Amino acid sequence: MNKAPVSPAATFVIFGALGDLTRRLLFPALVNLAEAGLLAPETELLGISHHDCDDDGLRRALDDFLKERPSWENIRSHVHYRKGDFRDSKTFTSLAGELKGNAVFYLATGPGFFGPIVDALGDAGLLDESRGFRRVVIEKPFGTDLTTAQALNRQVLARAKEDQIYRIDHFLGKETVQNIMVARFGNTLLESVWNNRYIDHVQITAAEAVTIGSRGKFYDATGALRDMVPNHLFQLLAMIGMEPPVSFDAAAIRTEKAKVISAICPIDPHEAIRGRYGTGAVAGEPVSAYLTELDVDPLSRTETFVAMKVHVETWRWTGVPFYLRTGKALAARDTEIVIQFRDVPLSLFRETVVDRLPPNRLVIQIQPDEAISLEFVVKQPGPAVNTAPVSMDFSYADHFELQHQTGYETLLYDVLTGDQTLFQRADQIEAGWRAVQPLLEMWQQGSPEEYPAGSAGPESADALMHRAHRRWHRLG
Ligand code: BG6
After folding, report:
1. Which of 52, 126, 288, 300 is the most exposed place for a label (fewest CB within 10 A)?
2. pTM score > 0.85 for this model?
3. In the predicted model, what is the mean pLDDT of the chain?
4. Separation of 269 CA from ligand 1 center, angstroms?
5. Looking at the predicted structure, is the pLDDT value of residue 348 above 90?
6. Is the Cβ atom of 200 under 6 angstroms away from ligand 1?
7. How far is residue 367's CA from residue 176's CA, in Å, rounded to a whole number?
8. What is the pLDDT of residue 358?
9. Among 21, 25, 167, 170, which is best to mutate for testing ligand 1, by the most ligand atoms less than 8 A from CB?
């Protein structure tokens, strides 16, 4: 088996060290890497934020999440804290005096700080790689539309080279998502039917049962479209739609992904719908309407659900619609990709099949369980030729020991080892925004259609499918 090497020693600097992301995901992921023997023991972890705190304060803040972990005691002594204002150049000049050798700068901050921090790192000489690598990890949202994303790309690329910038999309840290490439390009069986001759359409769903909770401020300014589509859902689409790369290295893979994202046609507002949850119940628990949530403007137009038909104009995909949907407060948590194959050319079982044969489907289940199933029909036992739908199921948990992971492990390891495969390049980000731009413009007017919390979304999402005599795969 291929054993991954230990990462090179580096200082891992986190801007926004006292935030939720740092505590819940970044540190636990670093601890998981250490326990898997993948993190160099000399790795230093330096948190920076504007709050009053010190080394011990940060360590104690992390104890709650990590104290049960065997390696935490060792790592704990490598954790440090500096108080610093991200808009003050002194924060960066003193950091420059302190940092020697390799460093990663992780921007776990509000998006308004991404550009200014990269500028300040550049001004302080912290992005100069003459004495070690210097890499910047940028969280989402990367811009809020095409113009702002282009401006942010220009700003960061004026200070750092593309190979120093790691634009993170945490969906790409999920095992089943990474498996898509292996399933496609490691199996003749799948790849030979992976085109518009055999595939009728593709469905990509990221359904969440949770509401926006305490994230009203962020969410009301963002909405489901910006939050999920040009980034997470298009990344899944790219994994499904990309051409085989010429090799498995980062440049080749990123180029193929960029090509498919740039082939997404600007989305026609008539082929997209938006929804907003009203009152209802999720898993038996009452849920109040979006408009009454904390920090949400009662006159808000923000959508909590979107569904759309997406056309990808390439040789392989012309004529195969990709249906995308995502939303909050839905009936179940369910992230999945459904590849629906065309009907057989001639139904030989007309006499015995009431409607029509159910189509073959390949379902790639990403969350909550990681699985792949292939749905097909067989003959029921007995003298008459009656068909029955069945499914062949592969579940990750049945075959592999799955350690509890946050989903950030591979991504952080890749930053430390310099592998950009799973990170978005500037052109991918811009192509994603370009495709959704018509919706961003159109949806400045009107308001979303209400759906009851705990349902499968607004009725017009079903209508979008029914118009084409199709239906969504059931949630959950
Ligand atoms: C984040 C979005 O990027 O992804 C959230 O901002 C969303 O709104 C989350 O809930 C979904 O991620 P996951 O890994 O829980 O499916």
Report:
1. 52
2. yes
3. 95
4. 24
5. no
6. no
7. 9
8. 84
9. 170
For tokens 């940060």, what's the residue? 58
Residue nearest to atom 15 of ligand 1 (CA): 208
CA distance 139 to 111: 8
Which atom, in ligand 1's list, is nearest to the CA of 333?
16
Is the Cβ–Cβ distance between 7 and 99 less than 8 Å? no
- pLDDT per residue over 389-404, tens digit each? 999 999 999 999 877 8
Within the chain, all domains assigned CATH 3.40.50.720 are found at 11-171
Where do you find CATH 3.30.360.10 in the chain?
175-402+448-466
pLDDT digits (tens, 9 = 90+) for 129-168: 999 999 999 999 999 999 999 999 999 999 999 999 999 9
Cα–Cα distance measured from residue 81 to residue 35, given in angstroms and rounded to the nearest whole number: 23
Before 368, cis peptide (omega within 30)? yes
The closest alpha carbon to 338, from 184, 244, 201, belongs to 201
Residue keyed to tokens 């440049």: 251
| Reported CATH class of domain 11-171 | alpha beta
Here the tokens at position 382 are 């007995």
